[in-house]
Amino acid sequence: MLQVSVSPPQRQSTVSVDAQGLLIVIPARRSVFLVLFLTAWLAIWGMSEFLGARRLVVGPRPTEWILVLWFAAWTYIGAWTVYAWLWITFGKEIVKLCPPSLTIKRDVLGMGITRAYELAQIRNLRASLPYANPYDWVGTGAGLFQGTLAFDYGAKTFRFGVGLPEAEASQIIGDLKRYSPIGDAA
Q: Could you write out the DSSP letters of every residue in 14-43?
């Protein structure tokens, strides 16, 4: 009988404490296959985008109005794919807990929106696999941007920790709760 020793996987995230509070950095899940696939797809997209733009500049005939619609949709899809490629290649989530707030930033090359949540309003902090809605694949990025960590804030649930395994999400909850009693109030 063959026996293989399995080492426990290491955390993807890093945790540090400084004068400003607790800082957790969660790198985006890297996928060499997806980066290569999206790179090839974007090369083809760029060529067809160029050809479509050139056709629009030359001036579509009145019967080619569908070209304008196609170009708008194709540009949107391409922009979304560029962001997905950048996220997978360079993205990270920066979570800061410095009472009285929790801030979460989805960072790509130093850019991104930081959202601040009042600790007193956060309820039910938990590790939870993302809900898969097959009818909302565009709005949720086909699951690419939904996190394993969740909390209730008012009448809505917010997620972060994109691509984290559930066990590591639980470790991050422990880190957050050791630093401040977050999400414990009923």
A: EEEEETTEEEEEEEPPP-HHHHHHHHHHHH
pTM of the complete model: 0.81
Helix, strand, coil fractions of the chain, as percent rounded to 5: 40, 30, 30
Tell me which amino acid residue 105 is: K
Phi-psi category of residue 40: left, alpha or beta, with phi > 0 → left and psi -120 to 50 → alpha: alpha
CB 120 within 8 A of CB 99: no
The CA distance from 172 to 104, in Å, is: 14
Per-residue pLDDT tens for 16-35?
998 889 999 999 988 899 89
Contacts of the segment 99-107: beta carbons below 8 A, 24+ positions apart: 99/21, 99/180, 102/176, 102/182, 104/158, 104/160, 106/145, 106/162
Gap between the Cα atoms of 67 and 73, Å rounded:
10
CA distance 18 to 41: 42
What one-letter code names the amino acid at 108?
V
The CA angle 155-157-159, to the nearest 5 degrees, is 160
Amino acid of residue 168: E
User: Which contacts of 4-12 are long-range, i.e. CB under 8 A and separated by 24 or more positions?
Assistant: 9/165, 11/168, 11/171, 12/164, 12/168
CB contact at 8 A, 172 and 159: no
